[in-house]
Amino acid sequence: MNYKFFKKLNPFELVDNLKVKYLLPNKNCIMPYLPYSEPSWDFNNLETCNRYFNFTSDGIIYCQNYLVSSDGKQLLSINGKAVPPLDKVKQFDKEQEKEKLIKLLESDNTIHPYTRYALLNAINNLNNKDEDANNILKFYNEAIPLCQVVANAREDLTNNIYNYLFSKKELLFLIKPLAQKINKT
Q: How many CB atoms lie within 10 A of CB 155?
């Protein structure tokens, strides 16, 4: 080991400059992404099951495309486009919506051709909306539970961090004798 290198290090500057990805290996704890990584105070970038979570003031960015609420319970947007609340997504029924549009077209012969064209396009686009709704429901079933686990683990870690880490004063108490011993060798 090169002790001269460690003599030059200020441990507080070292910790301030660290940026380490974290992961949840068993959904119960957060640990550095690489086994040789030093811990960091930055718990905003986490990874689990090869999926990335970035905690921002807007919420949790999941896999770069999904914005989830900070508590991990609600999908807010996909690729920057707002997502309706879950209860509205569950209420969507493609066939019922299609029937409504067809009734509207059949009930009024005075509908302008442009409006008729727009309604026919809306009927054709219902398949896309049905697919969107199914993808959102799938996200809630598969990804939201994981987002909640990550959000809870991060919250537990940040709330309890002072119970497990040394204060600056405590570190100095340990570092001074260690530095003296290193200087003697």
A: 14
CA 54 to chain centre: 5
DSSP 38: P
d(CA 185, CA 179): 10
Token pair, residue 16, equals 């301030």
Query: Is residue 168 a contact partner of residue 15, using CB atoms and an 8 Å limit?
Result: no
Collect contacts of 87-95 with beta carbons under 8 A, ≥24 apart.
Answer: 89/133, 89/136, 89/137, 90/137, 92/129, 92/130, 92/133, 94/126, 94/127, 94/129, 94/130
pLDDT in tens, 148-167: 888 887 787 777 666 666 66
Instruction: Please state, in angstroms and rounded to a whole number, the distance separating the CA atoms of residues 51 and 30.
Output: 14
Say what the pLDDT of residue 19 is: 42
Say what the pTM is. Answer: 0.64
